[in-house]
Design a protein that fits this description.
- By secondary structure, this protein is α/β, with parallel strands linked by helices.
- Among the domains are: 44-71 and 86-96 and 172-257, Rossmann fold (3-Layer(aba) Sandwich), CATH 3.40.50; 264-350, Alpha-Beta Plaits (2-Layer Sandwich).
- The chain is 37% helix and 30% strand.
- It contains 13 helices and 14 strands.
- The strands form 3 sheets. A 6-stranded mixed sheet has the order 6-7-8-3-9-10. Strands 2-1-4-5 form a 4-stranded antiparallel sheet.
- Helix 4 runs parallel beside helix 6 (156-168) and helix 12 packs antiparallel against helix 13.
- The N and C termini lie far apart (64 Å).
- Bound molecules: adenosine-5'-triphosphate (ATP).
- Adenosine-5'-triphosphate (ATP) binds next to strand 2 and helix 2.
- Adenosine-5'-triphosphate binds next to strand 2 and helix 2.
- One of its GO terms (molecular function) is ATP binding.
C-alpha cells in the first residue's frame, strides 16, 4: 500500500505478475488470457482497460473479484492477497466489489425493486433496511417511479441503471463495469457514463471500466491500461496515453476516436483546392489552443486558413489537430512552422507541386 511504498496515491487493487492460463481446446494446448500483468489501480479513480476482442480485458478484471483465479502471480485487493484464499475467505472480499455487465443480467421474474434488493437478501439485511436502501438507490439512479415494473418494460439504459443500483446495493468500494455501455446507443451510453462518473465522484467508489471503445475512456477514465494479447502494453493518465501513444494498438484506438488527421486521399483533395503551404498542427493543453496557432501566425505575418481537423476532449482536456493552409512570404511561413514546432507537434505537408 502507499504508506509502505511512499507513493502519493494508495492502490486499492494491485496485480503482481498476475497470469491466467486456460486449457485450450486441443489436448495440451493452452490460452494465456492474462500474461504476467503488474499494475496498480488507485483508490478513488476511474480506471479504464481498453483492448480489442480477446485481448484479455474481461479475464483481467474478473481476477479482481476472483470470478477467475490466477494461475500465476497474485492480485491484492485492499491489502488482501487473493491467491491463497479459499472460497469462504473470498466471500468478504467479493462483498466489497460490485459488477455490472454488458447484458445487464437482471432477473426477469423480479421487479426493479426486487432486483436491487436481491444482493441485500443474500447478505441477510432485514426487510426494513432493504426497503429503505432500495428507495435510496433507485433515487440515486433516477428510477424511483419504475420500482414496481419488470425489466422487460425498461429500455436498455434503464436496465443498466438497475444493474448499477444492484451492484451498489451493499456499498462496495470497487465497481467493475464490463462493457457496460456496449449494448447501448450513443445517447444512452452518455447517460450511463454520467452515472458511473457520479458513482465515482459522489460515492467515492473506485470504478474499473472494461471497454473496446476509445470514446468511453476518453470521456470518463482518469487512467487507462491498454491490453494486447494478454499483456498490458501501455498504462498511464488517459490524457497522456492518448495524446502521446507509444504502442501501435493505442495509436489505432486514438485514430478510431479522432478523425482529425487528413488521410492521403483527403490531403490530395486539399492540395487541389489550396495552393498554399499545408501543415497539420497538434492542439492540446500544452499548445494551449487554436489561439496559440493564430498568435504565432500573426507574429510572422502569415495568413492561416483552417482546412481540416477536429478538437475533442480526452479526460476533460482539449486534444486534436488542425490542418491549416499557410499563405505568406516563404521565409516567414518557414519561421512560423519552426515557432509552432517549439510548442506542439507539426506535420508539414508542404505545398502543392507547381
Ligand atoms: N473460460 C475460458 N476458457 C478458455 N479460454 C478462455 C476462457 N475465457 C476466456 N478465454 C480466452 O482468453 C482470451 C481472452 O479473453 P477475454 O474474454 O478476457 O478477452 P476480452 O479482451 O475481454 O475480449 P472480449 O471483449 O471479446 O470479451 C481469449 O482468447 C478467450 O478465448
Amino acid at each position: 500500500m502507499s504508506a509502505a511504498t511512499g507513493a502519493a496515491t494508495s492502490s486499492i487493487v494491485r496485480f503482481e505478475g498476475a497470469s491466467k492460463v486456460f486449457p485450450g481446446r486441443r489436448r495440451g494446448a493452452e490460452v494465456r488470457a492474462v500474461s504476467d500483468v503488474t499494475l496498480d489501480i488507485h483508490e478513488g479513480e476511474i480506471f479504464g482497460v481498453i483492448g480489442h476482442s480477446g485481448a484479455g480485458k474481461s479475464t483481467l478484471v474478473r481476477l479482481i473479484n476472483a470470478l477467475e483465479r490466477t494461475t500465476g502471480g497474485d492480485v491484492i485487493v485492499d491489502g488482501v492477497a487473493l491467491a491463497a484464499l479459499n472460497e469462504s475467505r473470498l466471500r468478504p472480499v467479493r462483498a466489497g466489489i460490485g459488477m455490472v455487465f454488458q447484458q445487464f443480467n437482471l432477473l426477469a421474474s423480479r421487479t426493479v425493486a426486487g432486483n436491487v434488493a436481491y444482493p441485500l437478501e443474500v447478505a441477510g439485511w432485514s426487510r426494513s433496511r432493504r426497503e429503505a436502501r432500495v428507495v435510496e438507490l433507485l433515487d440515486f439512479v433516477g428510477l424511483s417511479e419504475k420500482a414496481g415494473v419488470h425489466p422487460s418494460a425498461l429500455s436498455g439504459g434503464q436496465k443498466q441503471r438497475v444493474g448499477i443500483a444492484r451492484a451498489l446495493a451493499t456499498n462496495p468500494r470497487i465497481l467493475l463495469a464490463d462493457e457496460a455501455t456496449s449494448a447501448l446507443d450513443p445517447e444512452t451510453t452518455r447517460d450511463v457514463l454520467d452515472l458511473l462518473q457520479r458513482v465515482n465522484r459522489e460515492l467515492g467508489v473506485t470504478v474499473v471500466v472494461i471497454t473496446h471503445e476509445m470514446d468511453v475512456v476518453r470521456s470518463i477514465c482518469h487512467r487507462v491500461a491498454v491490453m494486447d494479447r494478454g499483456r498490458v502494453v501501455e498504462v498511464g493518465q488517459a490524457y497522456q496515453v492518448f495524446s502521446a501513444p507509444a504502442h501501435d494498438v493505442t495509436r489505432r484506438f486514438v485514430a478510431t476516436a479522432l478523425r482529425d488527421r487528413p488521410s492521403p486521399e483527403v490531403l490530395e483533395r486539399l492540395r487541389a483546392r489550396h495552393t498554399g503551404h499545408i501543415v497539420t498542427v497538434g492542439v492540446d493543453e500544452v499548445a494551449g489552443s487554436s489561439a496559440v496557432l493564430t498568435r504565432t501566425l500573426r507574429e510572422h505575418g502569415v495568413d492561416g486558413t483552417v482546412v481540416f481537423g477536429g478538437i475533442t476532449e480526452v479526460a476533460e482536456r482539449p486534444y486534436g489537430s488542425l490542418t491549416v493552409e499557410l499563405v505568406g512570404d516563404p521565409a516567414a511561413v518557414e519561421a512560423s512552422v519552426a515557432a509552432l514546432r517549439d510548442v506542439t507537434w507539426v506535420d508539414d505537408h508542404g505545398r502543392a507541386a507547381a
